[in-house]
Amino acid sequence: MLFLPVMHAIVPDAPRLPAKLCAPNVLPLNMADRPPPAKPGYYKRPAAAVERGGGFYVPGLEGYKLRLAVSLVLSVGIVINRVLSPGEVAPSQITSELLGATSCILLLAQVVDERANEREAKEQALRTLAASRLEERKDICPKLSGAFAERASFAAATLLSLTPANLVLLIDMASSGRRSAASGDADRMPDGLLLRYGRSRAANVCPPQEILFTKLGGMDSAYLTDVDEAFMLAPSTASVVLQRCGTHDVLLLASDQPAFTDKQRLWISQVASLLRSRTA
């Protein structure tokens, strides 16, 4: 069909062919029907999958376990290479072994750090789960006078807002731990517990005076990051601050995190001065 324009140029009166016969039969293409381009998979280069966290992995060696396995294999290979090397070791071999040993040490350091972070994340998840099962409480012993009960409520609310504490207890050590509330009477305050503000376990118990005397040890305050089960607090409790605020009264602040700073403990001691006397 390339000769048609030439013939028409030579012979002006030559008949023209219909446009439908000359034009190619082109069908409209719907872009929506075109399949999406294939995305390059991770399996083309497994190293990229490991670097970018793709779907490629060795079953049983997820996370830090793959680095641990690689570092152990390399360490064994370096040792075997040194043992089986005949004669005097060349400087180039020593350099290679030093580079390999350095790589193994770096991999092991990453394994230790990642394992510690994973363990900490699991512990935090368990604390969060345990804390979600606690009840929000605002209980005041009816034996307290109106003025002192108001001061105690203000002190507890202030400490909950200024510190990482999620529970504030005001305890009378002279009577704490003698008797807890009956199991069927959840609304009754146990002996020795004067105030309870914050998220507390459902069991209506009070830390016994023996554990309070032991942990204070004759001091006015104590900061504990290893919380004994004898405190009868929630399992998610990670730290406790004890602060004397009277002859027999003690403020107990509990938190799900070991996060009480020196400045916050100073605030606790200043707020506790409001509760030194129940009659004033």
List the helices and strands and how they pair.
Elements: H1 3-10, H2 19-22, H3 46-52, H4 64-83, H5 91-132, E1 135-140, H6 146-162, E2 167-172, E3 193-200, H7 209-216, E4 221-224, E5 239-244, E6 249-255, H8 262-272
Antiparallel strand pairs: 1-3, 2-3, 2-6, 4-5, 5-6
Order of helices and strands: HHHHHEHEEHEEEH
> In percent, how helical is the residue content?
40-55%
Number of strands: 6
Biggest β-sheet, characterized?
6 strands, antiparallel
Task: Provide an overview of this structure.
The structure is a single chain. By secondary structure, the protein is of the alpha+beta class. The protein contains 8 helices and 6 strands, in the order αααααβαββαβββα. 42% of the residues lie in helices and 13% in strands. A hairpin with a 4-residue loop joins β5 (239-244) and β6.
Feature tags:
six-stranded antiparallel beta sheet; 280 residues; single chain; disordered N terminus; alpha+beta
